[in-house]
Amino acid sequence: MTTATNIKHIFICGSALRGQPDHQNLTNAKFIKTTQTLPQYRLHAAENGWHPAIYAVETGGISIPGEVYEMTNEQYEYLLANEPPHMYPATVKLEEGEAIAMLYPKELVEQHNWPDISHLGGWAAYKSASS
């Protein structure tokens, strides 16, 4: 039996969303809700559109749509092990509450000049528009 201290709420907003190719990396985590972040983040297409790169900003941010999942420590560790290089877990602010999300260093986004896709309204919208 899993205790409450072993449960994490994870905000997914990229290739592990429902209907996206890496959804299986959630290993049957319990879907909680669809939501979005507060408008404090930017979204870029990293590595030629292979994965999203999200980072917090002081001004000029958008609300990023996504999904919250409840994960055990084992599910969370599996997710972390399957994330692209340089992504790191951090707390993000949602419309209601907070959750852990995978962010990306802003410095690397700027270094590689990856396209800002914030205006498209989320990762799924970007993938749909680019296919």
Summarize this entry quickly.
The chain is of the alpha+beta class. The protein is built from three helices and seven strands; from the N terminus they run βββββαββαα.
Residues in β-strands, percent: 25-35%
Question: What general form does the structure show?
Answer: globular
Could you name the CATH topology?
Hypothetical upf0131 protein ytfp
Number of domain modules: 1
Share in helix: 10-25%
Strand order of the largest sheet: 1-5-2
Q: What is the radius of gyration computed over CA atoms, rounded to a whole number of angstroms? A: 14 Å
Helix/strand/pairing class, anyone?
A: alpha+beta
The averaged pLDDT comes out at: 92
Model description:
The chain has a single domain, classed as Hypothetical upf0131 protein ytfp (Roll). It is 18% helix and 33% strand. It has helices at residues 73-81, 106-112, 123-130, and strands at 8-12, 30-36, 41-46, 51-56, 65-71, 88-93, 98-103. The strands form three sheets. The chain has a three-stranded antiparallel sheet.
SSE map:
Blueprint: E1 8-12, E2 30-36, E3 41-46, E4 51-56, E5 65-71, H1 73-81, E6 88-93, E7 98-103, H2 106-112, H3 123-130
Antiparallel strand pairs: 1-5, 2-5, 3-4, 6-7
Task: Give me some keywords for this one.
Hypothetical upf0131 protein ytfp, 131 residues, single chain, two-stranded antiparallel ribbon, 3 helices, alpha+beta, three-stranded antiparallel beta sheet
